[in-house]
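Final report, Chapter 2: Outcomes

The project's central promise was a pipeline that accepts a single protein chain and returns its three-dimensional structure in a standardized token representation, suitable for archiving and comparison. That pipeline is now operational. To close this chapter, we reproduce one record exactly as it appears in the project archive, with the input sequence first and the structure output second.
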Amino acid sequence: MKINHKNFFLNNHPLVKKDITILRNKETNPEVFRAVVKRISLILAVEISKEYQVSKTEVETPLEKTSGYQLKQNVVLVPVLRAGLGMVSGFLEVIPDAKVGHIGLQRNEETLEPVEYYYKTPKDINHSQVILLDPMLATGGSSSEALKYLKRRGVKKCVFACLVAAPEGIKKIAIDHPDIPIYCAALDRKLNERGYILPGLGDAGDRTFGTL
């Protein structure tokens, strides 16, 4: 399936494909599910951070002083509660000095519209490189609202990372936020009548925390 969005990046790593299959399996228990989400998130973090800039610094080895590098920008991870929490640890493995904020959004199951119930981010988020984390990009409503909240608070540099996306959600982000790159581990077929991704992997939050 092709997506006509220049800012959509699908990760085709063989290990990601294998792990997505494990996530899809309805028999995968929460412990394994969490571990797999972390592994995929780690690979996405490596992919996203390839674009970061570094500045030179000096470091002393056991033998002599030499030049090295450090990140120029601060990084803030913003998981969409609660499912996005499962992606945080993988990103922190790659970017351990990143700060973590939170956005709480829940979907109204009748209207499918997002409802905000929590927002807390670092004070310097407007000067940081932000990564919005949400495992499932379905209708795109919640993700689009989260991006609007971040922009209203001054965020200028932001990318969106998800595990599984539907074409409808990608289109929504492309229309509402054409400046936001989307990094994804799997592109699925479509949404069903209830707004769930097909074939998908079920409710990522429930499967992560064992609340089925």
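Archive annotation: Residues 8-53+72-209 form a domain with the Rossmann fold fold (CATH 3.40.50.2020).
This record, like all others produced under the grant, will remain available to the consortium after the project formally closes.
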